[in-house]
């Protein structure tokens, strides 16, 4: 009887601990993630206006699950590790915030913007790949165009490889945020040279 009571008590305690939540390794709960941006700074360039978009991403990536790779031919869709919102919107928001910080302007709008907004420059982005292996690296491959007065003035291709420092999904998402920072700096450098 005592043995039965001990087994029942340990089963109940195990069930309670799994319901209480836990660390990232807790496989019973879905965890949600968001991309980060550079810290905001005081704006000084009030004349510069930047339009971001349209931004296109592969259909494979446009889903709630975080996508990573097991190898070059096999992908992993993490059911227990998902984006808190739309992944595409996360990318666009991160790029918008980063460009605003780097160019020190509040006048950065996402496509489609109001008719009254007339950007000094528009950045159109087609992300072809943005994934990698957890514990290894992230690859961001994109083609992007810079327009001024609706005329294309620059066409570039970017390939950024960012190491993932750690083996968790938090580390993986952090590396994606860092890749977007590098990408934003590349765009900013081109705009500053014009």
Provide structural commentary.
By secondary structure, the chain is an alpha/beta fold. The protein has one domain (49-193): 3-Layer(aba) Sandwich (Rossmann fold). Helix content is 31%, strand content 34%. It is built from 3 helices and 8 strands. It has helices spanning 2-19, 87-103, 169-193; strands spanning 31-33, 50-56, 65-69, 75-83, 108-110, 121-133, 137-148, 151-163. Strands 5-2-6-7-8 form a 5-stranded mixed beta sheet, covered by helices on one side. Strands 1-4-3 form a 3-stranded mixed beta sheet, with helices on one face. A hairpin with a 3-residue loop joins strand 6 and strand 7. Helix 2 (87-103) packs across helix 3 (169-193). It is elongated and about 50 Å long. 25% of the residues are buried. The model is unreliable at 3-9 and 12-24 (pLDDT under 50).
Features:
8 strands; five-stranded mixed sheet; 3 helices; Rossmann fold; three-stranded mixed sheet
User: Separation of termini?
Assistant: 82 Å
**CATH fold-type name:** Rossmann fold
Question: Which CATH class applies here?
Answer: Alpha Beta
Looking across the biggest beta sheet, what order are the strands in? Answer: 5-2-6-7-8
Succession of helices and strands: HEEEEHEEEEH
Q: Just name the CATH architecture.
A: 3-Layer(aba) Sandwich
The largest sheet, given as strand count, sense and whether it forms a barrel, is: 5 strands, mixed
Summary of the model, kept short:
The chain has 194 residues and is α/β, with parallel strands linked by helices. Helix content is 31%, strand content 34%.
């Amino acid at each position: 009887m005592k043995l039965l009571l001990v087994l029942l008590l340990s089963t109940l305690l195990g069930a309670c601990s799994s319901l209480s939540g836990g660390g990232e390794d807790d496989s019973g709960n879905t965890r949600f993630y968001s991309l980060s941006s550079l810290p905001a700074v005081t704006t000084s360039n009030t004349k510069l206006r930047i339009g971001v978009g349209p931004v296109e991403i592969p259909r494979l990536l446009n889903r709630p699950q975080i996508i990573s790779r097991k190898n070059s031919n096999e992908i992993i869709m993490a059911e227990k590790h998902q984006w808190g919102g739309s992944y595409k919107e996360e990318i666009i928001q991160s790029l918008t915030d980063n460009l605003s910080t780097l160019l020190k302007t509040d006048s950065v709008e996402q496509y489609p913007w109001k008719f009254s907004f007339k950007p000094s420059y528009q950045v159109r982005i087609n992300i072809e790949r943005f994934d990698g292996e957890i514990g290894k690296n992230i690859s961001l491959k994109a083609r992007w165009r810079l327009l001024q007065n609706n005329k294309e003035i620059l066409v570039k291709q970017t390939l950024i490889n960012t190491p993932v420092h750690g083996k968790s999904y938090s580390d993986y998402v952090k590396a994606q945020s860092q890749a977007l920072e590098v990408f934003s700096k590349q765009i900013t450098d081109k705009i500053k040279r014009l």
